[in-house]
Amino acid sequence: MWAPCAAKLRDCWAASSLILSRCLSLGVSMAKSKFEYVRAFEADDTCLPHCWVVVRLDGRNFHRFAEKHNFAKPNDSRALHLMTKCAQRVMEELEDIVIAYGQSDEYSFVFKRKSNWFKRRASKFMTLVASQFASSYVFYWQDYFEDQPLLYPPGFDGRVVVYPSNKTLKDYLSWRQADCHINNLYNTVFWALIQQSGLTPVQAQERLQGTLAADKNEILFSQFNINYNNEPLMYRKGTLLIWQEVCEVTVKEVKLPAEMKGEKMAVTKSRAKPVPLYCDIIGDAFWKEHPEILEEDS
Ligand SMILES: *[C@@H]1O[C@H](CO)[C@@H](O)[C@H](O)[C@H]1NC(C)=O
Ligand SMILES: CC(=O)N[C@H]1CO[C@H](CO)[C@@H](O)[C@@H]1O
Ligand SMILES: [Mg+2]
């Protein structure tokens, strides 16, 4: 019995569009359904005003992911550059991110203190960063891993932390960079012992047990002739992304009135882009050089 049903549907449509147009013309809000009250069950997760909001992503089970996709040890520059590409995309797509810092399989994004994007709701910040990042990771994979197909979809967990002052935000970023240094120094010696001295992972771990940074530097230098300080900065310091004006050259078709025919011309214009830097953020020099990052209305 289709006819009565269709008729009912039509009535229904007519009625609802009547209500809708009446509401629009009178400028009043639609009547609330009796189910509306469930809205109040949503948690209020507004981030404290005037604080720095940090979203940190971390690759889910990336130890296994790196094995399966043959990441180079101790570091894989393709993987690090892909992470940075995704982070740049996140900064370009989303609002109000003033700086980002990444190392290994993690990236942190700092939203400006006065951001009112999505009314500062933590869940919106976190899910938008995580989903934009993860889809970019898959989208750009082939550009960085030409000979290595992506075997399964990677995931990233996210968390939101709110920092109340310049000092706590700087200490947060310093903490992540110190972590990068500790891990990278360890991994560099660990893999040199395995790859160049033929130790098993267990033996390498035992050899490094209880060693200090100076001891690790000494092993690298005396046994492998590696001066750790000469290792590439991207591995030792991680990657910072900040907004900088970049000159862009695009080729445009320009109509010249005299000849009335298309002419190709190079047009340069400057545009703000998230640019990678590999430098120390623990000392004051970086912050003195870039005061605009922490400024009130950055
Ligand atoms: C944070 O640092 C910036 C840049 O030095 C400064 O303009 C701003 O006033 C500082 N904010 C606070 C709350 O101290
Ligand atoms: C610090 C470190 O481990 N650096 C190595 C990272 O991997 C590249 C090769 O991809 C080596 O050249 C670096 O020495
Ligand atoms: Mg991880």
UniProtKB/TrEMBL annotation:
The keyword Magnesium applies. Its EC number is 2.7.7.79. It is an enzyme of class 2 (transferase). Keywords: GTP-binding, Magnesium, Metal-binding, Nucleotide-binding, Nucleotidyltransferase, Signal, Transferase, tRNA processing. It catalyses: a 5'-end ribonucleotide-tRNA(His) + GTP + ATP + H2O = a 5'-end phospho-guanosine-ribonucleotide-tRNA(His) + AMP + 2 diphosphate + H(+). Residues 167-282 form the Thg1 C-terminal domain. Binds 2 magnesium ions per subunit. One of its GO terms (cellular component) is mitochondrion. Mg(2+) 1 binds at residues 58-59, 105. Residues 35-164 form the tRNAHis guanylyltransferase catalytic domain. The keyword Transferase applies. GTP binds at residues 58-63, 104-105. It comes from the Eukaryota. InterPro entries: Thg1_C_dom, tRNAHis_GuaTrfase_cat, tRNAHis_GuaTrfase_Thg1, tRNAHis_GuaTrfase_Thg1_sf. GO terms for molecular function: ATP binding; GTP binding; guanyl-nucleotide exchange factor activity; identical protein binding; magnesium ion binding; tRNA guanylyltransferase activity. Mg(2+) 2 binds at residues 58, 105. Belongs to the tRNA(His) guanylyltransferase family. Adds a GMP to the 5'-end of tRNA(His) after transcription and RNase P cleavage. This step is essential for proper recognition of the tRNA and for the fidelity of protein synthesis. Also functions as a guanyl-nucleotide exchange factor/GEF for the MFN1 and MFN2 mitofusins thereby regulating mitochondrial fusion. By regulating both mitochondrial dynamics and bioenergetic function, it contributes to cell survival following oxidative stress. Homotetramer. Interacts with MFN1 and MFN2; functions as a guanyl-nucleotide exchange factor/GEF for MFN2 and also probably MFN1. This is tRNA(His) guanylyltransferase.
